[in-house]
Amino acid sequence: MQILIIEDEPRAANQLRSKLAACNFEYQLLDIIDTVEDAVLWFEKHTAPDLIFMDIQLADGLSFEIFRKTDIEVPIIFTTAFDQYAIQAFKVNSIDYLLKPIQQDELHHALTKFTKTNTTPSFDPSILKKLLDSMQTTTNSREGILVKEGNGFAQIKIRDLLYFYSEDSITFGVTSVKRYIINETMDQLFSSLEPNQFFRINRGQIISKNAIQKIEAYFNHRIKLSVLNPRDQEFIVSRQKTSDFKEWLNR
């Protein structure tokens, strides 16, 4: 069986490959893609695989954008860090999903389901809209975040966070005076933040509008940002996100 992995976190993609091997699942991996843009280009140039593993939050936006730009008529197993409320829409639409971190038995069950059926799930736009609406509802309700502080924990107001970044698989949140460790992945974190206030400028950084001090053109059609309390971080908006970033600034 030929499979395609659409996932923007290399560690998650490698873990999925290891778990597939542990399932004794015979497959040929065609490619690993990390952006909506590259996925659309891939489908334009290649024959569709037998099965796709697709993350929801990619480096340049939600993977649902892929369906708006190209036709996909093969089974998909979504992988997601979103909560149970957000993914109820998948059950209505007969699309399977795996909640991160992926469990071996759940992966095995999903593979068994797809190898025993020849049916192809259809994508109902109204169901996808419900999913996006549920994500938005979750996003708008979050006001605080639990962080590690000393031997315990503390709650920080979301409005006090200037930016988030990932380093060595650890997520950090930075205020004007301090850096905190956050026990969430970048995908989990970004899915819960107010989209008009925070923007994921690349795979490893999420920025608040309140943090931006200066915006400069950068080589290869990218944008460089000067921010408050940078802590030796360099903030470069990826080429794929430059257009969306400019639009976000105008909201």
Automatic annotation (TrEMBL):
Keywords for this protein: Phosphoprotein
Any Pfam family matching the protein: Response_reg
Domain Response regulatory as annotated: residue spans: 2-115
InterPro entries recorded: CheY-like_superfamily (IPR011006), LytR-like (IPR046947), LytTR_DNA-bd_dom (IPR007492), Sig_transdc_resp-reg_receiver (IPR001789)
The keyword Phosphoprotein is annotated on this UniProt entry: yes
Superkingdom, natural source: Bacteria
Residues with the 4-aspartylphosphate modification: 55
Ranges for domain HTH LytTR-type: 145-251
PROSITE patterns: HTH_LYTTR, RESPONSE_REGULATORY
Identification of the protein by name: LytR/AlgR family response regulator transcription factor
Originating organism: Aquimarina rubra
